[in-house]
Design goal:
Blueprint (H helix, E strand, L loop, with lengths): L4 E5 L5 H6 L5 E5 L10 H8 L3 E5 L13 H14 L4 E4 L2 E6 L4 E10 L5 H17 L4 E4 L14 H12 L2 E5 H11 L3 H7 L5 E6 L3 E3 L2 E3 L8 H11 L6 E4 L8 H19 L4 H11 L16 H8 L1 H9 L12 H7 L4 H19 L10 H22 L2 H6 L2 H12 L6 H14 L6 H14 L9 H15 L1
Parallel strand pairs: 1-2, 1-12, 2-3, 4-7, 7-8, 8-9, 9-12
Antiparallel strand pairs: 5-6, 10-11
Amino acid sequence: MKHLGTGIGWRPEIAAAVEGMPGIDWVEAVAENVCPGHLPESLVRLRERGVTVVPHGVSLGLGGADRPDEGKLADLAAAVEALGSPLVTEHIAFVRAGGALTASPRLEAGHLLPVPRTRDALDVLCENIRIAQDALPVPLAVENIAALISWPGEEMTEGQFLYDLADRTGVRLLIDVANLHTNHVNRGEDPAKALDELPVEAIAYVHVAGGFEREGVWHDSHAHAVPPAVLAILADLSSRVRPPGVLLERDENFPAPAELERELTAIRETVEKGAASLVPEASDSVAAAAVIPAVSEAPEPTEVPDEAAASAAASPAAERASANGTSDTSGTAEPDSGDALKTSPSTDPARQRLALAQAALLSALVAGTPVPEGFDGTRLSVQARALAGKRADVVAKVAPELPEILAEAYRKAFVAYAHSHPMTGGYRRDALDFAEHLLLGGRLEDPDVRRRVSDWWLERSGPAPLSQHPAARLARATRRVLLRR
């Protein structure tokens, strides 16, 4: 058993810098960017040095109305095994809505959206997490997210919601203190109260990140320095429990390596300062409950351990039952969680209600439908603009040729497109659809720009590399002529 220590989010843009930083105990990599058969050489070298790598998923949508996709779970498990990770993390969020449950088109948010803190949403989330736990070879931890908007009619605070979630499933928690700050500014929620209510013994590790405030709204950008307010929340958390790991997140606008090292030093010093006020006995017992298996103790890739019993034993409910000399099985997962799900009340009615609510919200955000009753229309407008901007940024990363070709016109053109064209697939599909929208709509007046966008689209719109057969080349030439008319 071991603590993770101090880490940083691994990104290709700073891979070399991360390898050269002193005192990096572990890194976190976006799971969807990890190809198990072709790991980035930088991650391979870090692993060989004994640096722990934790995959961090962003697309599972555990807070959505649908059950987790088996293919996405299999991909997440493959990333875990390829990296030899001791745990895997995801978010308490929904990222898509619509589909069969609502008999409406499937919509993708392209970003993490908050789950309503209701009994319905909690029931669905608990079942989804149990399904994920059964499919993954290592323990799962889930992260609280930042939000610009609030759901009407919420029944619990964030701390209560997280406590019940951990209590019923035994899932670990990834607490993002920057997100607690975001929700303080945007939703008026007290970070100290959230820390009072959540089960600190369930914390797997902590995220720290920067952002910026504009017109009274805090944007969790991961592109700015960590502000003092976020470090203050980290200090408060560390005064309650010494977190097994703390990680600095930075996704873009990367500063010089020396600046990142200064931020990591400030994080270490903040944790030490907070931990200095811990009662030694409490610190030791809580930390012991929160440690995770060392990489060397992780199961072989071909083995799937019985994590359900272990997670149940580590849950707050199990700990209380042990102290009382009783057995509490009301909400924790049994070793054979599949049988438990069969005998538990069906979540289908709750899923139906949640699906309708999430589809109405997402449709208002990305398709311009009316604002659902009870929501703040102004805040939804801010969120809609943020989602469109996020789409533009990610498409620029997966298809960097488009902003290069369109230059300064790229962002304005894409945001205008996004407001009337909801994303229904992945970002690469979104890039192709955007280019097609520009071409077929006659929106590219410059002949050279139109030709370059057309060539880009033609080279990538097929299921396989372009054939060099004379007939295929003739067909492509004819298609180009037709598109330029």
